[in-house]
Input
Amino acid sequence: MWHIGDIKKYERCDKLMWLSNREPQPFIPYIFYNESIYELSKKRLNITEFLEGNRNDGNDVFFNHQEAYETFINIRFEYESLRVKVPILQRVGNTYIIYFLFSSCSPKEGEAQSFADTIWVLNKLGLTVSNVYAIHLNTDYVRKDELDVTELLKINTHLFNDKNHKGRSIETLIQLFYRDVSLVLKEMNVTFKLENIEKKRTNVCTRRNKCNYFNTCFKIEEKDTSIMNLVSCSKKFALFEQGVHDIKDVDIESIEGTCHQLAQILAARSQELFFDTYAVESFFNSVTYPISYLDFEWETYAFPPYEGMKPYSVLTFQYSLHIEDNDNHLVHKEYLGRQDCREQFIVKLIEDVPSEGTIMCFNVEGAEKLRLKQLAKQFPKYENQLKQIWDRMLDLSIPFSTGLIYDNRMAGTYNLKKLVSIFTDYNYSDLEISHGMDAVRIYRTSDNSTIEQEQVLKELLAYCGMDTYAEYLIYHFIQNKIKELG
Ligand code: SF4
Output
C-alpha cells in the first residue's frame, strides 16, 4: 500500500522511495511542534461534532457513517494501492470541502500535487470535492496572553511561491496537477521490486536538506579533497562527469573562482594547511581583552508558546560564557532556564558579560546576534544593553567560511566540532550529549521532576560549555599560527 508521502519521495528520487520503504529512518524535527494543528484547526472552524479516523481504517469507516456526520477528521480512503488521509472533510449537500492543514506559514504551490492526488482517490470512490482550503500559520501573528486561533490560523484559497509570496489559487493548481495517479503507482511498483538502484550524486541529494540516505547511497568514502567537497561550485557534477574527481585537478578558470575555492585548490595541491596570515591577522586586529567566548542554545517553536512570540519564534534558554583576561585566565559562567525564561536570560546575560572587550561567537549573524535582536524586540527596555553586547561580537567562523584558513580535513565544511577535532586535541564525543540537536531534544522533553532529568540538564550545560571552550581553543590555535608564520 502506498501513501502520498511515498509519491512525494518517489518524485524527488526513485531510490529515496525505494530505500525509505526498506530501511525506514526516524524523523527528528528541527522545529518543536508544541501544539496540534488538528486541535487548533478544529477550534478555528468551530468543529465540535465529527468522526475521527484511525491509522488502519478502510473505506468502510467513512461510508458506514457518511450520512451520520457532516465533518470527518483524519479520515482514510483507499483506491487501487494508494491510501490517503484527509485532514478535515466537510459534507455540504452532495459535495465535500477539504481543509489541508499546515504547521508552516507559507505552504508552497507544489503541495497542490498531493491535494490533486487525494482528490483523485475521492473521485474514484464517487465523492465530489467542491472546495479546497489550506489552513496555515499567520506569519505576522504576535501572541498576546492567550493563543488566538482566529488570528493565528489563516484559511486560504491560494498557496505560496518559492519567495513566500502569494501564489496561484488552489483551484487553478489542482486543475493543473490533476492526473491519473494509477500510472505513477504502476511505475512505483516496478521500481520497488528492483534488486538495487544505482544512482549518481546530484544536487537533488543535497538540495535544501541533505537527503537522510546520503551515507547509504554514497558509502564509498569520499576523499577529503573530492570535487564533491568544492564549496559553492555549480559545475562540480559536470566536472566529475568529465573525469575531474579531485579538487587539486580543478582549473580555477573553469569555475566561479571564489577565494574559498582557491584556498581549497591550493590546500589540495600542496597537501598543507592554507593560511592567509595577513588577512587573518587583520581580521582579528580589533580584538581587545577581556575576550568573552559566548554560545547560546535555543528551541524553535512552530506555535508561539509565550506572549510577544510569533510562529517559528525561538526561545533562547541557555548560554555558556568563557571569559579570558589579559593574563590568559579563563573563567566560566553559564545559564540554563526553563519555560518562559527569556527575561531572566537577558538579565543574567547582561550581568555576566563583561562591559568591555571583544565577544567571540561562532556564526554571529545567524545565531547569537540574531537571537539578541529578537529578544530586544520582545523586551525593548533591554535593547540598549543588548545592543551593547551584539555590537562587540566578532564572528570566529568567518576566517573558515571565507577560505582564509583551509585544511583539507575540513572537506568543505567548517562547523566548530569539526574544526576543534582538526586543530586541537579536544573531543566532544565523551559527552552523553554530543550534538546540538540532542541538546535541544532533551530540553524539549525534560521538566524539573526527576533525578535523571537533573543529570540530563548537567549534560546540557556541559555541552554548551564545550562549545565556548572550543571557541577559545580555536582562537588560540589561530593566534599561535599567526606567530609561527608571521
Ligand atoms: S542520497 Fe540522492 S540518490 Fe540517494 S536516495 Fe537520497 S536523493 Fe536519492
Q: What stands out?
A: DSSP finds 19 helices and 16 strands in the chain. The longest helix spans residues 451-485. The radius of gyration is 27 Å.
